[in-house]
Amino acid sequence: MKILVPIKRVVDYNVKVRPKADESGVDLNNVKMAINPFCEIAVEEAVRLKEGGTATEIIAVTVGSSASQEQLRTALALGADRAILVETEIEVEPLAIAKLLKGVVEKESPDLVILGKQAIDGDNNQTSQMLAALTGYAQATFASELKIEGEKAVVTREVDGGLQTISVNLPCIVSTDLRLNEPRYASLPNIMKAKQKPLDVIEAGSLGVDIEPRNKTLKVSPPPVREAGIIVETVDDLVDKLKNEAKVIT
Amino acid sequence: MSILVIAEHDNEEIKASTNNVVTAATNLEGDIHVLVAGSNCSGAKDQAAKISGVARVLVADSPEYEHCLAENIADLIVAISADYSHILSPATTNGKNYMPRVSALLDVAQISDITAIESSDTFERPIYAGNCIATVQNSDSKKVITVRTTAFDAAQNDGSAEVVDLQESHNLGISEFIKEEIAESDRPELTSADVIISGGRGMQNGDNFKILESVADKLGAAIGASRAAVDSGFVPNDYQVGQTGKIVAPNLYIAVGISGAIQHLAGMKDSKVIVAINKDEDAPIFQVADYGLVADLFTAVPELDAKL
Ligand SMILES: Cc1cc2nc3c(=O)[nH]c(=O)nc-3n(C[C@H](O)[C@H](O)[C@H](O)COP(=O)(O)OP(=O)(O)OC[C@H]3O[C@@H](n4cnc5c(N)ncnc54)[C@H](O)[C@@H]3O)c2cc1C
Ligand SMILES: Cc1cc2nc3c(=O)[nH]c(=O)nc-3n(C[C@H](O)[C@H](O)[C@H](O)COP(=O)(O)OP(=O)(O)OC[C@H]3O[C@@H](n4cnc5c(N)ncnc54)[C@H](O)[C@@H]3O)c2cc1C
Question: For residue B249, what is the DSSP state?
Answer without folding.
Answer: -
